[in-house]
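Troubleshooting log. The previous structure file for this entry was overwritten by mistake, so regenerating from the original sequence record. Sequence copied from the archived sheet and checked twice against the printout by T.R.
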Amino acid sequence: MKKYLFLLSALWVFQACKKEECPKPPCADADLKKGLMAYYPFNGTASDASGNGNHGVIKNGASFGTDFLGRPNRSAQFDGIDDYVIVNDNGKLNSKSISFSALVLVNNINRRHTILNRVNFEDASAVSWGAGQSLDITNKWELAVDKPSNLCNQQYVFDPSNNISTPETMVAGRWYHILATFGEGKQNLYIDGKLRGSKTRDFMNLKECISSQLVIGGWWKNDIISIDGKIDEVRIYNRVISECEINELTRMFKDAGEQ
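Regenerated output below.
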């Protein structure tokens, strides 16, 4: 009887509330371990917690700071000058589709910032995808996916047709949940669980280059663009995660922050 009354009351809550205020129902089919290629909780180390061995190497003094809950040594902290973390995965992080998720805070705006990049760090070739603050310094979050027709040995040349960006500008000193997906030609960028940029490309799959590396908080050797801020809870999947799973990741951070 109690279970029946609970279900009735829950149904009334979802029917009675306004659409924009309704709580999201529980996500029964979320599997946040399926297709997880790498996971960096940055709990005092840049190790990969997924079990796949894609460990990061800290460069130029990148350190660990407080996370979004204020806990010490629980996020990667970068100086905005030359700090970065690099993962030499020998192609293990290549995939035809991608989803990646991260918590990000920048200390200041009106400058370039990078979050994650799939690139050959030595010469800026073998670019597949990347995310950060827009190159034209409009203080918007941006996702770039390079065309597979650009060869793996070619140095990347900025092409605005590769990019989508958010309509709103970022705010310094605030944690954001950044999530991006690409698969079957669809390129999407989510901020705090909401779709804020999308486009359909004329190719279906990501470019896969054996010489690509994962660079966290930086770009390439001669133009590092170290983020001035913090990055935490980085997850990279070899598939496009579902809307339900996107909601679940967002809810995890939102609920924890409200405790």
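The chain is about 10% helix and 30% strand. Archived copy saved in two places this time.
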